[in-house]
Amino acid sequence: IHTYELGLANGDNIIEAVAFSAARVESKRSRATVRLEGPPKKPSLHVLAIGINEYKNPALNLNYGVSDATGVLDIFKGKENALFENVTLTGIFNENATRPNILKAIGDLQQSHPDDVIVVYMAGHGEITEDGTWYFLPHEVVYPEREAQLKSLGLSSNSIQSEIAKVGG
Length: 169
Hints:
Structural class: alpha/beta
Number of strands: 8
Order of helices and strands: EEEHEHEEEHEH
Shape: flat
Number of helices: 4
Distance between the termini: 20 Å
């Protein structure tokens, strides 16, 4: 038996469970709906903006990644009390926009409540591999045309999606 604490949002919350045997045989899925009728709560807003103008490889440098990302942050400054209980703005720029720092910042969003609003904005280079996977290029990627480096240092759309899916749960 396992016990889990879940953050519930006001209204219907669908909870689904599945078990696996040691041989990785999947059980029948079980689904329940739990309704929470708590007092109305304003959501919080969490904005993560990543902008890169200066790459480790100067041939990759851009002109507007940082200004675009700071522009997104500026849009949400001072929005407390209007729509949101709290507004948390996080910016990661240039040499700080590394793969580990970006993944940590996305991981920090996991502390948010299910009712909160999350915005993730990324301004920098992207690259597509031969198999069609898209990668965001953090600061430390020097040779994006080398697939091994792209896969080890880049952030695939699949990994970004997987990390964001853990947010607010």
